[in-house]
Amino acid sequence: MGSDPQNPAIPMAILFIFLLQFSLSVASTSLNEASDAVILQNQGGRKQREFDYFVLALQWPGTICKGTRHCCSSNACCNRSGGFSEFTIHGLWPDYNDGTWPSCCTGKEFDEKEIHTLLEPMKKYWSSLSCGSPSTCHGAKGSFWAHEWEKHGTCSSPVAHDEYGYFLTTLNVYFKYNVTKVLNEAGYVPSNTEKYPLGGIISAVENAFHATPLLVCSKGAVEELRLCFYKDFKPRDCVPTDSQNAIVSSKISCPKYVSLPSYEPGGKIFKFTDSNWQYPNA
Ligand SMILES: *[C@@H]1O[C@H](CO)[C@@H](O)[C@H](O)[C@H]1NC(C)=O
Ligand SMILES: *[C@@H]1O[C@H](CO)[C@@H](O)[C@H](O)[C@H]1NC(C)=O
């Protein structure tokens, strides 16, 4: 595995996205360097300095969907035809080296129309795995995508520019660094019986991308895998700093042996919280 894996089976639309992104990233490099000292200002007037690096947070549906108790149209765990076998996107988060992060950096509200050309890959690879409405930046609640854009995406503007740029950039990085592929090739395949050494999973990712990921577990099962990047999207180590340790050392830390459960669309145990919704193909 090289450090620059590309999927040969990427559909044309995504290839097009790659090309677009290439010009976008060339344009943003110089902008990036010039804007190191830029102070981003959020809604409340609180000054936030520009972030230091990116975290690409990926979620493992097999683990998250096990916790599903309610169904609704926005929860992809409830979709019987879904057949998740890959890590999906949680978000791309601009972070500071000290383990804190900026949030709600501009007043830009989420507008789905701006990303209508990205909806197909977004629905597939950036699905919401819950029925909740997470908070947005204006004391409101919104969709999963609205939350990710308003809380985190707006802080990436020195690099990703705008909402479209944020989602496009995130999809591109996700396609380029295919963690599922890396783990599968190292023998870490979804299973409801196997346990895998945490160190082996970390090494497989390190060998492929030359940077150390961060794993988050729930009851001994991998729930998230985070990859970290410099602002030019070269991989870098995810360094668990003190304030991250505060989170990571609690119940979300991973044991020495972890599981990677298979995705099982639930159904029997689900209650429907959205009366207008039915299982597709049920
Ligand atoms: C269910 O999954 C299928 C296949 O991935 C997808 O086309 C469809 O949009 C999904 N439906 C919902 C409600 O998420
Ligand atoms: C990642 O790799 C897996 C296994 O090779 C493949 O099935 C999947 O389509 C790839 N995902 C993306 C987003 O390219």
What does this structure look like?
With 282 residues, the protein is of the alpha+beta class. It has one domain (12-272): Ribonuclease Rh, Chain A (Alpha-Beta Complex), CATH 3.90.730.10. Helix content is 31%, strand content 16%. It contains 9 helices and 11 strands. It has helices spanning 12-34, 61-64, 119-125, 144-152, 157-160, 163-176, 179-185, 198-209, 242-248; strands at 39-41, 47-49, 53-59, 70-71, 88-95, 196-197, 214-218, 221-229, 235-236, 257-258, 271-272. The strands form 4 sheets. Strands 3, 5, 7, 8 and 9 form a 5-stranded antiparallel sheet that branches. A two-stranded antiparallel sheet has the order 1-2. Strand 8 and strand 9 (235-236) form a beta hairpin. The N and C termini lie far apart (40 Å). Residues 1-39, 242-250, 267-271 and 275-282 have low confidence and may be disordered. Bound molecules: 2-acetamido-2-deoxy-beta-D-glucopyranose (2 copies).
> In the CATH hierarchy, what is the architecture at level 2?
Alpha-Beta Complex
**Number of separate structural domains:** 1
The percentage helix is: 25-40%
- Main sheet: strands, sense, barrel: 5 strands, antiparallel
Bulk shape = globular
Q: Quote the average pLDDT.
A: 80
Give me the secondary-structure category. alpha+beta
- Give the C-alpha Rg: 19 Å
Quote the CATH topology.
Answer: Ribonuclease Rh, Chain A
Number of continuous helical runs: 9
Beta-strand proportion? 15-25%
Unreliable spans are 1-39, 242-250, 267-271, 275-282
Q: What is the H-and-E element order?
A: HEEEHEEHHHHHEHEEEHEE
